[in-house]
């Protein structure tokens, strides 16, 4: 049984469940979300805390969160100095969460709060990750088809398995959270990071709700970029593919050269070939540009990694980070080691 001693020891005891919620311009739903969630959580026999991360909202989200924190002592808020993106917001939430298990969910009520109870139950059965998988019922056909094609493509490339419909809505055990926090890379693709961490996991399906208020922050271009990020930030296979494509083109060129030389030897040299030449040159130039682009993508990533900038800056909060950044953890371990 893949259950840790710690978990067996704890089963049946009260746990602290942290709910991490990234919020960007969610003034229209945040109060309703909190009310709905707390109502649902009454059915759970565990303690709860809420970690709301205000990702540099330009509306009243922060002041609403501060109000919530005043009326409900379980509410922690962390506010960024500007918009750093959902990935950074989730990372901050995980750092500031002190629970034995952490549930990550969106503020827009698309992740039904009533599922948290189910997640906690499944966690108690010994699963480190309880993953909610949305069905694509009610989605536009184009969206369903592009998603399907994308996942087929990406799973051919990346080393971890990514599943269509699986997003950030999930419960993570403390050790899974610590493992995710141990991955300090700057370019964070959480879907991949969660899959990389592994541990006993269970997936269950839920019906995705339509967004009640406010708007989705995703434009088509952003989705495209997100897809490319997923592809590139998780493996170096596109580079490998570039090598193979180069080799393929080289062998085609060699065959073609042999054929040209052969036919020149037999028939003598004839001048036409201008069109072929142009097509070949432009095609090759295109292929080269793409490959330079692929290499550039990786170099761009290295560039961001070596800067070692923080993932986010906190401007105001009523909480303290529970998990020290890895650097500090390492420092502590080294201290023991030297002693
Ligand atoms: N979000 C965020 N920072 C951003 C964009 C979004 O923290 O820069 C939050 C947002 O408030 C919401 C969640 O991430 O709680 C998901 O965002 P959204 O609903 O726009 O995405 P979708 O559900 O369309 O994928
Ligand atoms: Mg949403």
From TrEMBL:
Keyword set, alphabetical order: Membrane, Transferase, Transmembrane, Transmembrane helix
GO MF term (any one): transferase activity
Phylogenetic classification of the source organism: Bacteria, Bacillati, Actinomycetota, Actinomycetes, Kitasatosporales
SUPFAM superfamilies reported in the protein's UniProt record: Nucleotide-diphospho-sugar transferases
Protein name: Sugar transferase
Residue stretches spanning the membrane: 241-262, 274-299
GO cellular component term, pick one: plasma membrane
Entry annotated with the keyword Transferase: yes
Record-stated family: Belongs to the glycosyltransferase 2 family.
Organism: Streptomyces bingchenggensis (strain BCW-1)
Domain Glycosyltransferase 2-like: 18-179
Membrane among keywords: yes
């Amino acid at each position: 049984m893949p259950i840790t001693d710690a978990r067996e020891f704890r089963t049946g005891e009260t746990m602290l469940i942290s709910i991490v919620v990234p919020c960007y311009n969610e003034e229209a739903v945040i109060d309703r979300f909190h009310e709905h969630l707390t109502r649902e959580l009454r059915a759970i026999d565990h303690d709860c805390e809420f970690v709301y991360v205000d990702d540099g909202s330009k509306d009243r989200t922060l002041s609403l969160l501060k109000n919530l924190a005043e009326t409900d002592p379980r509410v922690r808020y962390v506010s960024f100095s500007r918009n750093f993106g959902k990935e950074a917001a989730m990372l901050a939430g995980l750092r500031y969460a002190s629970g034995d298990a952490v549930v990550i969910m969106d503020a827009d009520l698309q992740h039904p709060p009533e599922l948290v109870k189910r997640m906690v139950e499944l966690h108690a059965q010994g699963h480190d990750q309880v993953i909610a998988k949305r069905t694509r019922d009610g989605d536009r056909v184009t969206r369903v088809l592009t998603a399907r094609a994308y996942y087929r493509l990406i799973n051919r490339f990346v080393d971890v398995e990514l599943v269509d419909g699986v997003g950030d809505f999930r419960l993570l055990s403390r050790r899974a959270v610590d493992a995710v926090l141990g991955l300090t890379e700057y370019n964070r693709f959480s879907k991949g990071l969660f899959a990389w961490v592994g541990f006993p996991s269970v997936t269950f399906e839920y019906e995705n709700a339509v967004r009640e208020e406010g708007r989705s922050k995703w434009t088509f271009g952003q989705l495209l970029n997100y897809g490319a990020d997923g592809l590139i930030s998780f493996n170096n296979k596109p580079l490998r593919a570039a090598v193979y494509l180069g080799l393929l083109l080289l062998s085609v060129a060699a065959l073609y050269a042999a054929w040209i030389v052969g036919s020149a030897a037999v028939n003598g040299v004839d001048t036409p070939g201008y069109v072929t030449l142009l097509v070949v040159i432009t095609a090759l130039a295109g292929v080269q540009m793409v490959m330079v682009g692929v290499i550039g993508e990786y170099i761009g990533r290295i560039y961001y990694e070596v800067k070692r900038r923080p993932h986010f800056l906190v401007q105001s909060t009523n909480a303290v980070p529970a998990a020290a950044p890895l650097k500090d953890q390492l420092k502590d371990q080294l201290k023991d080691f030297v002693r």
